[in-house]
Amino acid sequence: MNFLENQVGVSIILLNSRNQVLLQLRDDIEGIDYPGYWGLIGGGCKLNEAPKKAIIREVYEEINYNLKQFKLLRQFYQNGIKEYAYISDIDMKISELEINEGKALMFESLLKLDKYKIRDDDLETLKYFINKELLT
User: Fold this and answer.
1) What is the pLDDT of residues 17-38, one digit of tens each?
2) Which residue range forms the structural domain that includes residue 73?
3) CA atoms of 86 and 58, how far apart (whole Å)
4) Which of 19, 48, 59, 64 is the most buried (most CB within 10 A)?
């Protein structure tokens, strides 16, 4: 059995009241995927950890924010890994969040994302959300 088939990833689109998405600038170090790219908050599930619990933990670990309400946006496979992408509102400013992982955080308009290097799977999730919003 392929090791990657047992892995599960999670990410979340966090939107502020101005409909801007929270992006995290990934560290620029060897050994991580997409060093120096912008991306969503997220990570991997621990052994036997449910995806919902994993996203709550990842958000808290990465930005010290207690995620309360969120919903599943999509499920997909990326490079043999099952991914769960969630969405939620966030009622805090960048200055109120802690950067525990990555180099920086920013809120950016969904219409200006093409200005940044965003990791592929997160960009796909953001485009999925944008297209879904346009259709509803």
Assistant:
1) 999 999 999 998 888 888 899 9
2) 3-135
3) 12
4) 59
Backbone angles phi, psi at 65, to 5 degrees: -120, 130
Name the domain count of the chain: 1
Burial of 79 by CB count in 10 Å (0-12 exposed, 13-18 middle, 19+ buried)?
Answer: exposed
Both tokens assigned to 81: 């890994």
Token pair for 77: 């496979």
What is the model's pTM? 0.91
Note whether 121 and 44 are within 8 A (CB).
no
Nearest 5°: phi and psi at 16?
A: -90, -175
The terminus-to-terminus CA distance of the chain in angstroms comes to 41
- Give the pLDDT confidence score for residue 4 in this predicted structure: 43
Query: Alpha-carbon torsion 127, 129, 131, 134, what sign?
Result: negative
Measured distance CA(33)–CA(65) in Å, rounded? 24
